[in-house]
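For the sake of transparency, this paper describes our internal protein records without simplification. The remainder of this section carries one protein's record, kept here as part of the documentation:
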Amino acid sequence: MMTKAEIILVEDDPDDVYLFMSACEHLEPQPHVAVLGNGAELVQLVEQEDCRDKVILIDLNMPLMDGLETMAKLNAFPEKDTLCFIGFTTSSNQNDVKRAYELGAKSFISKPGTLVEMIDLLQTLSRYWFKFNRFYKEV
């Protein structure tokens, strides 16, 4: 059984947001997606809400607070080990990949460039994280 898919997309590029949201319309069930424009907004959200059962996709290249800086800030939270944040970027720089994993990213995904590829990625992501994965919940 699939749990309710909740995704936080941290992305400043309107074209990337449009492609992502267009792909989500093809998913069944459709995930609930919150879009944040930069890392500072994500840090503020995590301070205010329990985000441990959400998948957080973080672009690396953003204004105000970039993705790697955001991941470093998330490490200050007590629940850091149970947050599911993923690098989601056009960067294929191995230093970025290495640094993201060092900062606790659960995965590092290159953004697809077409709607068909994005649909495929989001179907796979949704099945894995919301059907087979179990998020930690305190008892």
Q: What stands out?
A: Residues 101 and 107 are 7 Å apart (CA to CA).
